[in-house]
C-alpha cells in the first residue's frame, strides 16, 4: 500500500538500544526515551536500529520488536520513525523492510552488505532496488558508512539515475569523510539532514540561528560542539562510550553495549558528560 512520502529534514536522533544488565533488549525504556527526546531535546524524528543502536549486533526478532515499539510508543509524539533494515542477507533485509512497512514506519534505511561487498555502483543499486521493491510505499535511504562496512564506493556514482531505477529512493544518510564525494552528492540533491541525540536542542538553536542569518551565534554554537566532540574523541569516543554518556546526560537506563563491544568506564562517561554540561551551561 502506498502512503504519502514526507520529506525528511531537520534533526533526526540516531537512537540507542536499551539493554538490561544481562544484555537483553529492554523495551520498557522506549516510552521514557521518546519523552526525553521530544520534551527535553525538541527532537521528533528518530533513526532506529542503526550504528548507534547496535542494529547489526541484534537478531532479526529483536530488531523487529524494537522497531514496532518505537512506532507504537511514538504515535502522536514522533513525527517520523526511520528504521534501518540493512543486513548481510538480502532476504533478511527484505523481511525487515516489509516488517517496517507493516508497523507504520515512515521510512527505511539500508547499509551496504559488508562481507560479500558490491563490486561497483551498479551492484549496490541493484541491491537497493530489490530492498525498495519489498516496501515500495516507504521512502528508501542509502546509509553510507564506509568506516564500518568497508564499502567506499563513491555515493555520487550510486546516485546516478537511481530515482528512475528505484521510485521510492529519497536520499542518503552520509556518514563518510570524503568531502569531495559529499560535495558531489549535495550538488546532485540540495536537501540535507542532520542527525543528533542528546544535544538536539543545541543543534536546533544552531540551525535556527543560521536560518535567521545570525552567523555569530551559529558559529559560536558550532565551535562549542566541535570543542566538546574533540574533547570526547581525545579520550576515546565510540558507540559504547556514547551510549554511557547518553545515560549520564538523560538519566535513562540504557544499559551496556552488546559484545564484542566492551562497557565504557563510568568515570570516562562522567568526564565527557561534565564537559558537555560545562560547554553548554547545562544543569
UniProtKB/TrEMBL annotation:
<keyword id="KW-0704">Schiff base</keyword>
<feature type="active site" description="Schiff-base intermediate with substrate">
    <location>
        <position position="173"/>
    </location>
</feature>
<dbReference type="GO" id="GO:0008747">
    <property type="term" value="F:N-acetylneuraminate lyase activity"/>
</dbReference>
<feature type="active site" description="Proton donor/acceptor">
    <location>
        <position position="143"/>
    </location>
</feature>
<dbReference type="Pfam" id="PF00701">
    <property type="entry name" value="DHDPS"/>
</dbReference>
<dbReference type="InterPro" id="IPR002220">
    <property type="entry name" value="DapA-like"/>
</dbReference>
<protein>
    <recommendedName>
        <fullName>N-acetylneuraminate lyase</fullName>
        <ecNumber>4.1.3.3</ecNumber>
    </recommendedName>
</protein>
<comment type="pathway">
    <text>Amino-sugar metabolism; N-acetylneuraminate degradation.</text>
</comment>
<keyword id="KW-0963">Cytoplasm</keyword>
<feature type="binding site">
    <location>
        <position position="52"/>
    </location>
    <ligand>
        <name>pyruvate</name>
    </ligand>
</feature>
<comment type="subunit">
    <text>Homotetramer.</text>
</comment>
<keyword id="KW-0119">Carbohydrate metabolism</keyword>
<dbReference type="GO" id="GO:0005737">
    <property type="term" value="C:cytoplasm"/>
</dbReference>
<dbReference type="InterPro" id="IPR013785">
    <property type="entry name" value="Aldolase_TIM"/>
</dbReference>
<comment type="similarity">
    <text>Belongs to the DapA family. NanA subfamily.</text>
</comment>
<keyword id="KW-0456">Lyase</keyword>
Amino acid at each position: 500500500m502506498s502512503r504519502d512520502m514526507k520529506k525528511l529534514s531537520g534533526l533526526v536522533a540516531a537512537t540507542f538500544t536499551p539493554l538490561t544488565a544481562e544484555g537483553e533488549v529492554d523495551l520498557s525504556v522506549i516510552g521514557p526515551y521518546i519523552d526525553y527526546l521530544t520534551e527535553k531535546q525538541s527532537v521528533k524524528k528518530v533513526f532506529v536500529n542503526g550504528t548507534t543502536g547496535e542494529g547489526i549486533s541484534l537478531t532479526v526478532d529483536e530488531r523487529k520488536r524494537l522497531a514496532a515499539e518505537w512506532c507504537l510508543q511514538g504515535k502522536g509524539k514522533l513525527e517520523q520513525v526511520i528504521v534501518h533494515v540493512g543486513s548481510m542477507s538480502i532476504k533478511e533485509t527484505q523481511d525487515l523492510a516489509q516488517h517496517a512497512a507493516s508497523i507504520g514506519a515512515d521510512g527505511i534505511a539500508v547499509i551496504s552488505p559488508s562481507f560479500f561487498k558490491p563490486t561497483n555502483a551498479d551492484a549496490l543499486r541493484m541491491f537497493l532496488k530489490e530492498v525498495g521493491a519489498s516496501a515500495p510505499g516507504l521512502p528508501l535511504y542509502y546509509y553510507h558508512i564506509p568506516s564500518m562496512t568497508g564499502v567506499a564506493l563513491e555515493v555520487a556514482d550510486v546516485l546516478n539515475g537511481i530515482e528512475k531505477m528505484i521510485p521510492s529512493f529519497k536520499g542518503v544518510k552520509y556518514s563518510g569523510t570524503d568531502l569531495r564525494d559529499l560535495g558531489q552528492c549535495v550538488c546532485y540533491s540540495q536537501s540535507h539532514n542532520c542527525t543528533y541525540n542528546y544535544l538536539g536542542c543545541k543543534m536546533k538553536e544552531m540551525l535556527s540561528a543560521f536560518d535567521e542569518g545570525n552567523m555569530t551565534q551559529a558559529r559560536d554554537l558550532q565551535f562549542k560542539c566541535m570543542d566538546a566532540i574533540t574533547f570526547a574523541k581525545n579520550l576515546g569516543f565510540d558507540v559504547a562510550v556514547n551510549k554511557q554518556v547518553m545515560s549520564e546526560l538523560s538519566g535513562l537506563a540504557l544499559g551496556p553495549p552488546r559484545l564484542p563491544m566492551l562497557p565504557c568506564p563510568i568515570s570516562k562517561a562522567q568526564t565527557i558528560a561534565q564537559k558537555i554540561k560545562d560547554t553548554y551551561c547545562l544543569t
